[in-house]
Amino acid sequence: MKRYWQILRQPQISSLLVIGMIARLPHSALSMLLLLHLVTNLDQSWVSAGLVTALMTLGIAIGAPWRGARVDAWGLRRALIPSIFVETLVWCTVPHVALEWVYPLAFIGGLFSLPVFSVVRTALGIMTTGDQRRTAFALDATGTELVFIVGPASAGIVATQISSTIGLSVIGITASLAGLALMILNPPTRSDDPKAVAMRANVHEERLGAEASFIAAAPVGVAEVEGELITAGWKSARARIKSRGRAFKGRFNWISASVLAVFIAAGGAGALLTGTEVGIVAELEAQSRSGDLGIVFLFWCGSSLIGGLLYGAMNRSISPLMLLLAMAILTVPMYFATDTWSLALLSLAPGFLCAPTLSAASEWLTDLVAEKRRGEAMGWYGSAMTTGTALGSPLTGIFVDTLGPAQAFIGIGALAVFIVIIALIAQQIRRRVRRARRRRLEAIG
């Protein structure tokens, strides 16, 4: 535990991790509480309720990179002000309006959702380097696991025992209070901030900085060595791309094949996790054991928490694609579950790799993207995961309806394996193209 104590002894980092957990808690309960409010209070079907949460998810997916980019451009405090006001207004209003108003309000609430993920991961990337960064991301991932154990369960208790109207209002207020706490803490999002407490340089980041300097001095249209946007050959691009095209390219020149692979891993992990969740619920319902859901989730999420802590103590990083591939393969044996306890035990193996996969993806993305673009990159990372989460649930539902609950684990696991294979093939193709362009540049030089 030495590495964890080294991280937690730094007040700025430990405060950020605690506030990040608290800030995520209302959002982790929001979807469940919103569903229950629509079904129980407004007498809506599950289809209508699902559409509302889908609109909110779409808003989050669109807003995450936008809000992250505003953090990069405006600074943390200015970027959080819109979220603080809008979240309170939206979620305190939703319980008191008719269904036709809930749809646009849910989308707006998602669009202006507090960018907790982007802020916390960007700040941790600034305040730590190397092995410290891996440990810090693992702590954040395990804290998130705790939040998603507590959040949905709390939403169910509030909706059934108190009031979903009160619960939604509390979520709006607490989300804004969490935004104010982040503004007061004001964690660094740039390395020149005095609060950036990284203890030693990151060799990989220094190399990326040197390559960025080389690209800045290169002629317009010359492909980047590592952090280039996937475009056509530099000669044809130089002739065809107009001023707006060049501006657009410059806007996204931090996207590389490796960055796209991280986004694919995030989307695949989101789909696999929600698919596994739906499969667990469907399997227990088929066995008439829905009341045992907490037992399975305790094993599944608890295993992820332990896996995240162990990954954070490692001396080396692991490709998030490889971790996702292993998690997908280990999900398939859940097909053989026959009762609650066998399902819980079979969930241990894939659950163990959940937090490490997300931690590794954040670590790789931080190393691959220049500091001035990390907030936006983390926003796109969150959007990729949100998109995967939104797709995983209905896809698994199709497997459940057509094949059965047990077969759904095979279906979602095979889908995640397919996603990883596509990403690995794309990476290999891109590396070959990159090597060819590098040789071309050397010949020109």
TrEMBL record:
It comes from Glutamicibacter ardleyensis. The keyword Transmembrane helix applies. Gene3D superfamilies: MFS general substrate transporter like domains. InterPro entries: MFS, MFS_trans_sf. It holds the Pfam family MFS_1. It comes from the Bacteria. This is MFS transporter. The chain crosses the membrane at residues 12-39, 45-67, 79-99, 105-124, 136-159, 165-185, 252-273, 293-311, 318-337, 343-366, 378-400, 406-429.
